[in-house]
Design goal:
The protein has 195 residues and is mostly helical. It contains 7 helices and 4 strands.
Amino acid sequence: MAGTDEETGGAGRPAGGGADLYALAVELRRMHGEVNRLAHAFAAGQGLHATDVQALGAILDAPEPMTPGRLRERLGLTSGAVTACLDRLERAGHIRRTRDTRDRRVVHLHYTEGGKALARAHFQPLATAAAEARARLTQEEADAALRFLAAMNGEFAQIRGPERRPGAGAAAGPSGGPRGFRGSRASGGRTHPEE
């Protein structure tokens, strides 16, 4: 049920403190849209998919060497989709895969210097815009903005769709089990996670 103009501040906007939250949401969507526009252009120019650019960002930002398994979890992809993504990125020269020296079963993903140079060149306008916006803030304002963005990312990381939340009633998939699972003849029709 929609609220009255007095309750929403008109034009669907919440009144009072909610108006600040609405304005913030609008600005976050606008920023996200601009970053996505640049990311999609980079993907198209490199013959990649948008998901491949997300993978590059995850590999670049990881505090320790990224693995295919952690990348799968981070992006919410199947094992097969991650493998296809990594194959494209490796063929295009953006990443390289190495084996862990202590456990050869573990694969580490590294963003190549050539790949980083391509990304830096493409995303330079974004870096310039960020530097210009930062220059208009005091140190205290910049620190507060960074704390806010870190807090938002922390909150977003906690959000799970109903199909991923433990104990939530997931919709049935094609095998009759929860969506995202499939039965196999070898398992006697039991369900197991898609790979």
